[in-house]
Please model this.
Amino acid sequence: MSFEIAVGSNIRKSPYFEATVADGVKSFSVYNHMFAPAHFGDPEAQYRALLERVIMWDVACERQVELAGPDAEQLMRYLTPRDITGMAIGQGKYVPICNYAGDLINDPVVQKLADDCFWLSIADSDLLLWAGAIAAERGLNVRVSEPDASPLGVQGPRANDVVADLFGDWVRELKYFWFRQTELDGIPILLARSGWSKQGGFELYLRDASRGTELYNRVKQAGAPYGIVPGAPSDMERIESGLLSYGADARYGVNPFEVNLGAFMDLDRDDDFVGKAALQRIVAEGIRRRRVGFVIGGERISGTSEWHGVKLGDDVVGTVTEATFSPRLGQNIAVGMLAAGIADDAQQLKTDFGDGPRSAAVRSLPFC
Amino acid sequence: MSFEIAVGSNIRKSPYFEATVADGVKSFSVYNHMFAPAHFGDPEAQYRALLERVIMWDVACERQVELAGPDAEQLMRYLTPRDITGMAIGQGKYVPICNYAGDLINDPVVQKLADDCFWLSIADSDLLLWAGAIAAERGLNVRVSEPDASPLGVQGPRANDVVADLFGDWVRELKYFWFRQTELDGIPILLARSGWSKQGGFELYLRDASRGTELYNRVKQAGAPYGIVPGAPSDMERIESGLLSYGADARYGVNPFEVNLGAFMDLDRDDDFVGKAALQRIVAEGIRRRRVGFVIGGERISGTSEWHGVKLGDDVVGTVTEATFSPRLGQNIAVGMLAAGIADDAQQLKTDFGDGPRSAAVRSLPFC
Model:
């Protein structure tokens, strides 16, 4: 199945849109109401570049939500179960966001730009609306808005070299999730060690949307000696790495404990936050399902495009949320959910991607 | 420019997805995190069917937000500037939703299912999050959730005949935006006289997602004698009709008075609602731009895919938010915005879609 994407003014174009088109993008997805490149013709070649060299990707669709003003930290603390006490200016943290029922509604990285200014680099849901409603209803003195900031990812083992050639050797010392505000040929950039892979690298948050093509080409040029290619976050790599894809692996109705985010839940905090009572109840009662990996039997697959049940006999006991062929493992693998009562060594689990039953063997995450 | 759409599990499939694929859908957009058919190969043929006969379209992406519980009406009243006093069970109303700054953030139709139950049929933003945050922060006793409800549109001059053949002649008496809960071959349906065109028709809200293909094929079969074709909302028709497309014509930062929605703003209500003070200030100060139509000069266009400035000399005085060729008028036409100081008979306005300057002559909406 292959379909065109309707390119209309209802979906925003990234500041890098024209550059990715010039670079041969073949497929887009839509994320936060913005076109997001999906691949440039050969997803496996891009996966190899990510693992072995360096790749650049347009992730401007990771829109920023800025909390600015005297009560910005108070709002930020209220929005996430994670305790952000002691965060330094220039530091980032992964901060799951829950609703009042304890369901995950986004899983951004927050960056502290100043004592009274935070940016949330969001997954695919309108956190701008969520945070804005809460700020207003609580009467907080904080402005919730979308700043002009569009991440460009540089990921892979040679990302350090590419980005050091562009910005200087100081970038090699930048700690994970820390950032610095800088510039490149006069282009204002927030440079963070971050990115949606486990291969390491940076995100260059372009702070002037009019200069997207310029930044894109500058990075491409700097990356050429290292074999950089254009691409997009890789399903293969993210499933091997067990990264959570909000939207694909969870949307409404999944709580953070079910998807292995318990380490980010500081439920014993003294201060209140959205979902606190519900999350405490979830911990007390125990979760009914958990996030796992699966090795999937049968012929090599290219991927999956929707959720598929995992059965034990006739009972649905789990879900494959996304599956892929893993080049590193030489097997079909998946991320998904499994009912709490089913053990890691469960035998006879089956799934079906539409072409007949396949075995599903439970594995812990990450695969690699 | 033509690109594939990445079909991944991060975007939901409509209950009609398989049926539209079987029916030859060529292009999708994404709306409310769901694949939405854009066209089936010949947008102008679908436009003709909409105007002259009847067309069916998958608009399951108009997701529903249900407000249920003792405080449902209180929440609904607080969410919109429009006064919904006196709404009957079985009635719908167009209810613009603003944020606290008075900006439009969605423009749904609300349907009153019971004294304590409302559905909002939403445009492309996460109103589920917005309404949920407000309900919780205000301590209201109301459950905000997404029900299992997926609209299938039947639009055009023969829509009455098709839907009467399916449900009975009572549908001919159904008033605009009114609805009834009924069923078809045991499939539970909320049937409303509604739809995103000015050609008239119905929306069949399927209330059991597992029966999408069944309903789709039943409507297709009933429509065959009337020449029904599969399609999608038509850019040509909606621009001729001056319909607002939230997302395309406005996203963040546009207030309802700027897009001609003043008739739905009951700012003198005694009770409070989101954005009340800001909207009163906007009225007192006057708007700085207004929604207009444009007749666009030059060669026939197929459409536009982003906003384009409208200039008077070197000054940007407006925006074309979306343009198309109008078969009925035999001209290129557009919807957009114009600075308040520019008169309807302004001469010398120019725009540029990337292939050189074109004249832009102001027209009032609708065109047809």
